[in-house]
Amino acid sequence: MTAGSTDGCPFFIGGEWSSIGTLPTSPVFNPSTGEVIAGTPLGGAAEVDAAVRAADEAFPAWAETPPSERARVMFKYRTLLERDFDAIARLISLEHGKTLAESRGDLFRGFEVVEMACGAPTLLTGELLPNIARGVDGELARHPLGVCVGITPFNFPAMIPLWMFPLALVCGNTFVLKPSERVPLTAIRLAEVLAEAGVPKGVFNLVHGDKSAVDALLKHPLVKAVSFVGSTPVAKYIHQTASAHGKRVQANGGAKNYAVVMPDASVEKTVEAVMNAAFGCAGERCMAGSSVITVGDRGRAVIPELVKAARSFTVGRTDIDEQPAMGPVISAAHRDRVCGLVDEGEREGAKVIADGRDVTVADAPGGFYFGATIIEDVHADMKLVQEEVFGPVLNVFHVDGLESAIAQANAGCYGNGAAIFTRSGGAAREFKQRVRAGMIGINVGVPAPMAMFPFSGWNESFFGDLHMQGRAGVLFYTQPKVTTSRWFAEGEGDIWHK
Ligand code: NAD
Question: Which CATH superfamily, name and number, covers 11-254+457-483?
């Protein structure tokens, strides 16, 4: 692949791979070195229209394909993904920058949705109630919607597309995926493997692009449903625009997640979990524990341990065999934004107690590195507290009781996840009941639900009704049809038989 070329980023439309060389491109970086490794072609209305039409043409036959046959494609997909597991994980590390272990986790969580989709015949089984009135039966069957669309962010190049299309497809829909222009290579590999698994032409399509491609998808009259994951302003826009154009929409947005450390928490286990929550994937996770709230002096005892752990956290390249604890962030611009937020917070009185701003990696001076950073004395009016930082930065709050901790966790506009570390069942229950977030962890730092449960937040972290994956995903990708039927006994009511 040559730098900036689109050769490595083809579209997949109607079962054919094609490069559209005349389109403008957006650079794809190897964040470990800063080198450009590809260029994402920025498709527009014409490419989107071709993909949606291909999906629409393929829909009737695919919708009529028995669910067990659709599931068989997923069984094959699962086997092939397993075969290619390590190669795909390396590709994620290359274009995203997360460590190989994190990339394996990224793919594995998506892989679990594929496994769930293999159960399509059971997932789609309907309901029947005989005798809703004498001699009358009621029956509910779940039908597919038509062409569904997935628009995904950069931070989980495998898992997030896999939240969407495996379930959409086994439910009998056809699909158009528009991955993040910053990480197109993993999506292309996922599509190649799906084609190899035998998905019929047009059932799954891949287009590349940015806002123009997204807008064309949101407004296309043949698109029935839109699944989106990304930042809150864009999620809100997607929800409003797609809804205004008559689509069913689920849109996951950004987050600011709190981890509460109670005085009775296990220090060692809590430090391990909070380090992972705050600095795993370089903080570029919607479930990142980006703020810790310590309760009382004993809760506060985790802070020196966290600082020690953060200062010894290795940062380095993830595109080589020897792996660091943490890789780079996605781009130079993003690193500079994170750095700017920390600088501004410090100017406004925050205290940086572990400082990752000057981290460098000797053999990769052009990489986008930012070390593990911990900040105390933050205030509600700082951008550091209000905005999603999406980098390896942990804000620290100290409070004197559970009541104040819950108030702090509920203070912002988001509501994705929250965690509590404690040995008290009563405190954990109180927290679980009263925190306004969609995903709660008890002694678990990143409570990202598994495939059989829904993954989405509350408040400004989610726009729509039905959450992603799990049974909610099946409901999102299907519409119920209820049939009320009445049959008569031979000759009953036929006056000419009398
Ligand atoms: P982003 O919002 O910039 O981009 C997401 C997608 O939207 C991309 O495909 C992009 O091409 C498209 N897009 C960007 N700007 C657009 C615009 N103005 N109009 C239409 N489409 C547009 O997000 P990102 O930076 O790629 O990802 C990080 C964000 O995603 C963070 O806020 C993170 O919290 C969030 N996220 C949320 C979840 C969740 O489940 N809640 C999961 C992962 C990531």
Answer: Aldehyde Dehydrogenase; Chain A, domain 1 (3.40.605.10)
